[in-house]
Amino acid sequence: MSDQVYVGNAGVDAAGDRGWLLGHFKPPGDPRHSEDVEIKWGVHPAGDERAEWVKGEARTALLVLISGRFRVELPGRGVLLSEPGDYVVWGRGVDHSWRAEEASTVLTVRWPSVPGYRVG
């Protein structure tokens, strides 16, 4: 049973894989391997932002603010997450970008986990 259980720390584990804790990119047999969902623990210093907009997103996403102030830019709309627990959801095909207005920690859930699809 122990090979079906993984215990870790999001801050420590995320540092080793650009923040991603769970998804298709984890090795098969690892309990964190999933073709259904991806989960990221994102730690961003103040002023950190995407270099360019994500276009043609193939997944649905949920982004939850853990701490800080984090802005998500969507077509025609900016969303400011300022209280722990604030969140935004966007669907497939919705272009987006983001910026950490303060040092921020966010939890992102995307589905499905799409092999070969990677946006920096």
UniProtKB/TrEMBL annotation:
From what superkingdom does this record's organism come? Bacteria
What is this protein identified as? Signal peptidase I
